[in-house]
Amino acid sequence: MADLRNNFVGIKSPNPFWLASAPPTDKAYNVERAFKAGWGGVVWKTLGSEGPPVVNVNGPRYGAIWGADRRLLGLNNIELITDRPLQINLQEMKQVKMNWPDRALVASIMVPCVEEEWKAILPLVEETGADGIELNFGCPHGMSERGMGAAVGQVPEYIEMVVRWCKQYTRMPVITKLTPNIADIRKPARAAKAGGTDAVSLINTINSIVSVDLDNFAPNPTVGGKGTHGGYCGPAVKPIALNMVAEIARDPETYGLPISGIGGVTTWRDAAEFMVLGAGNVQVCTAAMTYGFKIVQEMISGLNDWMDAKGHRNLDDITGRAVPNVTDWQYLNLNYVAKAHIDQDACIKCGRCHIACEDTSHQAITSMVNGVRHFEVMEDECVGCNLCVNVCPVENCITMVGLDAGTLDQRTGRPVDPNYANWTTHPNNPMSVQAAE
Ligand SMILES: Cc1cc2nc3c(=O)[nH]c(=O)nc-3n(C[C@H](O)[C@H](O)[C@H](O)COP(=O)(O)O)c2cc1C
Ligand code: SF4
Ligand code: SF4
After folding, report:
1. What is the CATH T-level fold of the domain 329-436, as seen in this structure?
2. Does the beta carbon of 77 sit less than 6 angstroms from any atom of ligand 1?
3. If you ran DSSP here, which 8-state letter would residue 198 be given?
4. Model pTM score
5. Pairing of strands 199-202, 174-177
6. Is the CB of 348 under 6 A from ligand 3?
7. Which of 28, 41, 326, 401 has its CA 20 to 30 A from that of 259?
8. Where, residue-wise, is CATH 3.30.70.20 in the chain?
9. Tens digits of per-residue pLDDT, 288-326?
10. Active site residue 139
11. CA distances from 136 to 45, 196, 295, 405, 411 (A)
């Protein structure tokens, strides 16, 4: 059995699966049920300042995108931070932490960008016994209009300033949660590091309108005839989140900064992907909201089985393992050559690969041979783009096969060069080293 115990900036949990700050972590009732189901930790639904709590809309707050089988792919919400009184949340957090000392309990906080506000709330949170705090610099709707959430996360100077206050006024580890609604994710991450953050977590939700009600001419979800942009999350955002995690993990300025990976984690495999790209653990929201708390059991057993099968003993064995293999386009090996290959036994002769290649790629797949439907790759035309692999409805029916060095590439008429060569030295590159000589 692989050891799934997680130590994230000194916060210990029996596994790396935490619930992200959101409705699943809004109250003791939920969190207790989540811990019973097996979650390693939670980030409590974001707390605001003492005083009258925020007010949510009393109508629909979600919109969604579905796959053809009605499986939820993307979720959009216009919910604010917790609308429960601060004192009640704090009391419940204290009780839950006492009942579940081995689980991680992190408090998410969002108060105005004023030093006194942060100074006031931190001791109250510390008193609950929470293991750490997460700064919500990500909420893209409602709170950002009030100068909080993403409004802070989009200004690196503010991030650095608030992180500094938090490091000054609490001994709890500080996790800075970043907004993806920014051009270059490395900048807020660097600012958080400069302020002294112990870690970053990402992503929060993405600005989005998921659909428009064409009868009422208003975005969904529609509240009294009007809609607003919401925050997008769920499986659809995973690719964006993975890229942002990798960007921070490989940036020399933030290299080694602990990362909590968030965004579309639904299976153990998603979690493993975040972790090999540099995340020390993962947080989950939409998958729990869609399938319930027990989904964590499949995540735990799946991760464990994969690690056992591959001989990975603990999470340190996998964290960041793929980071050295993430590079810039200019460093990809231009001498590498692959060709598509169709398994004729698996092919159901639907023709999708042919039409995709014929209309939009390189006219490299037959459709008819001797008057019979037959789909086969013509190696002398195939550029190896793998579009056909992605449109084929039969998994593993089309595979990409790398050509060995020295083999003749029928398209170019040249043998495959065994040497690595990239764009920086390519003769067609006006900026290349060779061209400069
Ligand atoms: C309904 C809803 C409410 C959320 N509320 C918060 C919040 O209060 N604080 C916060 O930091 N993130 C909040 N989030 C964002 C999630 O914590 C998480 O970053 C995001 O949903 C991406 O993860 P996922 O794809 O697993 O859902 C909320 C998400 C949803 C769907
Ligand atoms: S890899 Fe690209 S070029 Fe080759 S057959 Fe497939 S779609 Fe056509
Ligand atoms: S898309 Fe796949 S199944 Fe369909 S014809 Fe091409 S190889 Fe066969």
Report:
1. Alpha-Beta Plaits (3.30.70)
2. yes
3. S
4. 0.96
5. parallel
6. yes
7. 28
8. 329-436
9. 999 999 999 999 999 999 999 999 999 999 999 999 999
10. yes
11. 10, 16, 25, 51, 53
